[in-house]
Write a structure and sequence with these properties.
The chain is α+β, with helices and mostly antiparallel strands. It has 3 domains: about 5-130, Trna Endonuclease, Chain: A, domain 1; about 145-220, Winged helix-like DNA-binding domain superfamily/Winged helix DNA-binding domain (Arc Repressor Mutant, subunit A); about 225-335, no CATH class. Helix content is about 40%, strand content about 20%. The protein has 12 helices and 13 strands. It has a 7-stranded mixed beta sheet, sandwiched between helices. A hairpin with a 2-residue loop joins strand 2 (about 50-55) and strand 3. The longest helix is centred in the N-terminal third of the chain and has 21 residues, at about 5-25. It is elongated and about 75 Å long. The two termini are about 50 Å apart.
């Protein structure tokens, strides 16, 4: 069985040709039987499916990006320039999808591009088309995925201002596979929270502005890490693997807020399941006593040396509280954070 990424990769040139013929009319694009793609440098062959086509009577090189690897506008521009020099034709880069920020950068760099079903920007040929007719515009995701949120908070807790960041090792430490990490990185770029920097074949993320500015800009995309809350009278849960003080219990550790009557813990769904298999019984509804156990969307132990959840995730878990005491304590811990 072929995976979906490979199937998409083989059909992008076909989708592009069909789209251009649809919006430009008839046989606006014809694919040449002759191609010099095999003569290109390996890094270009690895990155693009390259076709020589006739577009509106003009020979054009169509470079279809392979896979879902993130490419900076500057890098695409360098590749397009190199392809133009080698093949002696104008170059149009085809991509499967594009964020508003990526679109803006490509246009600013004057790079001709096409997103099948969405947009064609080729000012050199006098063609600029937006969103396909008869369909609503693509709706950008407005809430970060749990992996994206965890990676961002990891960055703010561990990365220095002056450093560029190669996030895949940190993603692995948080339990995310390479494909999940790639999607998370695309979201960070989609929300314009970090910049992509390319050094040779290596790709890094770089801070835009200050860390505090990054946090403020990210807030609208972030949500509470708490997926649901369970309750138990079994005090063994206090020492369960992966458990961290959370909620008002963690807030009391960091501020002058009084300890709550009911301890609050956070753990992943996997850790909660392990505790259940060890004999801990969870009540699905709130109890007057016992321990409140928050099941989190991502690992609550981002700050591994602490017995509490990390400060920024704690802030997100409590920011909707209507308790004035809690809101004052949240302001205090936000100011304490090492920006």
């Amino acid at each position: 069985m072929l995976d979906s990424d490979f199937m998409l990769e083989t059909t992008l040139p076909q989708q592009t040709v069909q789209y251009l013929n649809q919006v430009l009319g008839g046989d606006a694009m014809r694919v040449s039987a002759k191609s010099k793609a095999v003569e290109l440098p390996y890094f270009l062959q690895d990155t693009y499916d390259v076709l020589t086509v006739d577009l509106l009577g003009q020979p054009v090189t169509l470079a279809c990006v392979k896979g879902r690897q993130p490419l900076a506008a500057q890098q695409i521009g360098q590749h397009a320039e190199r392809l133009g020099e080698l093949l002696q034709n104008p170059v149009v880069v085809a991509l499967r999808e594009m964020t508003p920020g990526e679109r803006k950068q490509l246009i600013q760099h004057g790079i001709a591009f096409v997103v099948p079903g969405k947009q064609l920007f080729a000012p050199q040929m006098g063609v600029i088309l937006r969103e396909r007719f008869g369909t609503p515009p693509h709706r950008e995701q407005v809430i970060a995925s749990p992996a994206t949120q965890a990676l961002l908070i990891w960055f703010l807790n561990h990365q220095m201002v002056s450093e560029v960041w190669h996030p895949f090792e940190d993603a692995a430490a948080l339990g995310y596979a390479g494909m999940t990490a790639t999607r998370a990185i695309r979201e960070l770029l989609q929300f314009d929270l970090l910049e992509l920097e390319v050094r040779g074949r290596a790709k890094y993320l770089k801070l835009i502005g200050t860390r505090r500015e990054l946090w403020e800009k990210a807030k609208p995309y972030l949500r509470t890490p708490v997926l649901r809350t369970l309750w138990t009278y079994d005090l063994r849960i206090l020492h369960a693997n992966g458990a961290r003080l959370a909620g008002e219990s963690a807030l009391a550790q960091m501020t002058m807020l009084n300890e709550p009557l009911q301890p609050v813990l956070a753990m992943t769904a996997e850790s909660a399941q392990q505790a259940k298999q060890a004999g801990v019984f969870f009540e699905p509804r709130e109890q007057a006593a016992g321990v409140a156990v928050q099941v989190w969307r991502y690992m609550p132990g981002i700050q591994a040396k602490e017995n509490t959840v990390d400060l920024l995730s704690l802030w997100l878990s409590l920011r909707d509280s209507r308790d004035d005491r809690i809101q004052m304590a949240l302001e205090e811990i936000e100011e304490k954070f090492l920006w």
